[in-house]
Amino acid sequence: MHPAPASRAELPTAGASSLPRFVFLGLAVALLFILDLAAGSVRIPPIEALSALFGAGENETWKSILGIFRLPKALTALFSGAALAVSGLVLQTLFRNPLAGPDTLGIGAGASVGAGLVVLVAGRSGSTFIGELGLAGYSALALASALGAAAVLALILMISRRLASNLTLLIVGILIGYFAGSILSLMVFFSSPQKVQIYLGWTWGSFGGVTRERLPVLLAFILLGLGLLLGKTKALDAILLGDRVAESIGVDTRATRRRILIAASLLAGAVTAFCGPVAFLGIAAPQGARRFFRSSSHRILLPASALAGSFLALLADDLAQVTAQGLVLPLNPLLALLGAPLILGIFLGSPRKEVAA
Q: Least buried of 117, 164, 225, 265, by fewest C-beta within 10 Å?
C-alpha cells in the first residue's frame, strides 16, 4: 500500500544542531584512527605514531611499520566502514526496512559467492594465491564480488514488487542468503585443502590484508559507489516516502533504484572481496546515525552514516589488537559483539510503529 502524495514541505528536513554532532563524531573517528596506528604487536605511543606518520619521528622502524602495515590497514577500516554503512543506509531507504542491509538481505552472501568463485574455482591451488594477486587480479576479485552482490540485490528488488510486507521481504532475503551460502558450501567441499584454508580465513573478516598496492583498487571501487549517490539526497528522501510520492515531485524512481542497486553492490562487493564478509556494520551504523543525529534527511544521513561506519570499523579493529601475546582477534565476532547490542537497544527503545515501518 502506497502512501498518499506529499508536498515538498513534507520531505525530511535536516536539523540545525547537526554540526556539533558531526564535529564530535569526526573527532572520535580521528582519535580511533590514531589509536589504530599505535596498536599492534609493536606498541607505538599515539603521539609518536602521529609524528612518525608525518615524517617527524626519528625511529625508522616505527616509520616502516606505519607505512607498510598500519596505515593501509587503518585507511581500509576507515573507508570500508563508511562504504558498508552507506550501502546499508540506501538499502534501508530503498526497501523502507530498518533491518535491511548487505548481510540481512543476502547481498553479502552474494558478494561472497562472487569472490568465492575467484578464490575457490578460478585461482591456483597454492596457499599464496591471495597474496600473489596483482592489481588486475584484485580488480577482478572486487568486480566478481560486486556482480554477485548485484545479482542478489536485483533478485530481491524484483521480488519486493510482489510483496506487501517488509517483514516478508526480510525473510526472503534471509532465505536467499541461505541459498547463496549453500552454493559456497558446495564450492568449499569440492575445492583443494589449500584453497579452503585461504577461504575460511577470509570469512573471518580482516582489514589487515589490504596492502599499499591493493588499497588504490579498493578505494577506486568505494569512491565509484559513493560517487553514484552524489546529488541524490532529495531523491532518496522522496523514495523513503514511497514511489507515488517520489514520482509526484518528479523523481525518476526506476533510474534512482537502478543507481542505488549499482552503488550498494559496488560498495558491499568491494569491501567483501578485500576484507571478507564483514557483518553488522551495514545495519548498525545507519541506525545509530539516525538516532544520534535525530534526522531523516539524507543530506545529513549519508555523511553521518559514513562517519558512524568508520567509527565502528576502527573501534572493532582497535579492540582486535588489544590481546595478550600479540594475537589479533577475528573481526566479525567483535563486530557482532558491538553491533548486536546496539541494534537491539535501538529497536527496544523505539516506538512499536516505528520499528514496524
A: 164
Instruction: Report the number of distinct structural domains present in the chain.
Output: 1
List all residues 6 or more positions away from 272 whose beta carbon is below 8 Å from its beta carbon.
102, 108, 111, 112, 115, 145, 149, 278
Task: Please indicate, yes or no, if residue 11 is contained in any of the structural domains.
Answer: no
Cα 168 versus chain centre, distance? 24
Tell me the C-alpha distance between 273 and 268, whole Å: 9
Instruction: Look up the domain containing 42 and give its range.
Output: 18-356
CATH number reported for the structural domain that contains residue 64 in this entry = 1.10.3470.10
**3-class DSSP assignment, residue 211:** coil
Q: Is the dihedral of CA 98, 222, 114, 69 positive or negative?
A: negative
Task: Confirm whether 7 is domain-assigned.
Answer: no
Confirm if 214 and 274 have CB atoms less than 8 A apart.
yes
Q: Which three cell numbers stand for residue 221?
A: 571501487
Burial 346-356 (b: 16+ CB within 10 A, else e): beeebeeeeee
Tell me the whole-structure pTM to 2 decimals: 0.83
- Burial class from Cβ neighbours inside 10 Å (0-12, 13-18, 19+) for residue 17 reads exposed
CB 82 within 8 A of CB 278: no
Is residue 9 one of the residues assigned to a domain?
no
